[in-house]
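From: lab user (bench 3)
To: helpdesk
Subject: output format question, protein + N~2~-sulfamoyl-L-arginine

Hello, I'm new to running complex predictions and I'm not sure whether the block I got back is the full result or only part of it. Here's what I submitted:
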Amino acid sequence: MQLCPTSILGFVIIFPHLCWSQYEALSGDQIWEIQGEVGLVSTMLYGKGFVDILDESGPRRVIRVRDRHSTEVLLTLLQNKLPYKVLVEDLASYLKEKEGQRKRKTKSSSTCSNVSCPQPLSDAYMTLDQIEWYLKEINITYSSRLSVTSIGKSIEGRDIWQVHIRPQSCSVGSSVWIEAGIHAREWIAPAVALQMIPLLLEDCSRIGTLDIYIVPMANPDGYLYTWTNDRYWRKNRRKNNGTCDGVDLNRNWDYKFGLFASDDPCADDYKGSAGFSEPETQALSDAMLAVAKTSNLLMVMTFHSFGQYFLYPWGWTAEPAPDTPKMINRGELWAAAAKKRYGTVYKVTNSGSGLYLASGATDDWAKAVLKVNYSYTVELRDEVTRGFVLPPDQIKPCSEEVWDGMEILLKAVGPGEHIFL
Ligand code: 0X9
Ligand code: ZN
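Helpdesk reply: Thanks, we reran it on our side. This is the complete output you should expect:
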């Protein structure tokens, strides 16, 4: 039974407190902590789709063990003499319990309906419908400053929307591209990208000379699926082989495609049948090429969660990409500004050596093919505790600190940038 956003006689009513269907797919899944020499074993289990790696920042691993694969995982750990501890017995009950506690404590003050959605919600995650209502509304209200256009359709036929915020003062012909939501379950990423839109519209500083392109929801089908069926869904909704669905869109970009990504359609990081096999990555890359053709594309940023990293390429190799000193310098500026308000620490590091090797991602393609000076992947809040299921009361502080970083960064990547070196 689907009790999330529902429509009765044309009136859309949201029952987020009854939205348990997104947790059903997690019934029986457990969270384990494994100690020891776990690197290769956890990567192997992840590549087969048996587990999901939730924390790999230190020597231990925190993994989500899928109910249907718990025996295989247990045997593998025993064979490799790796001790483990069960942290969460049943992920579905755990998340329902947390959600219930939160609902009893807080009442959302946000309003957004198909009649009016003038601001992006800052104390609740927006449904896909609400995001579309908001984008439609600003397209009318701010028609002189921005345009919202569809850059293509997802595999299930939904529009992928791009917001183009035009310069409000003298244009310098330079642009910035921001993508969010390519991984469905990372809800904080589109939420933060949406919060940026009104701030960019208001900004009267030099940022106002840039053309800013934002795709706040790059994977609409996957996002909807996380609301209705599986809160931990990561990929798009491609039907692969009958048993397992979805392609990891951040392994599907056609640069170093397939080097570090899974061949197994059941894995969360399944790369797809070929580079740009997916309509979502085709649409995104075509739109970015179009922007790069008509303007001086200075920077590409893609928002993800979680872990609090500010990553620069490469991700397909541990070697540094061109412009690495500049990317580090601007990254440090962003992270210092983002830390000021709430003390949140974002680690500025190279993807391949500081996080893990993974190929076919937005950032590497943008750096290699578009040759932008600055290409970043930002892993938003939190560090590890709530992970993908970040409570909505974190949308506001997370967006504020990100904006603090953006204000500095957007001024530091254009003409006059040398003053920071
Ligand atoms: O693995 C990813 O796609 C990103 N992390 S996430 O937890 N959000 O899935 C990191 C991508 C970093 N960039 C490259 N490896 N190129
Ligand atoms: Zn991600």
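A quick orientation on your result: The first helix runs from residue 21 to 24. Let us know if anything else is unclear.
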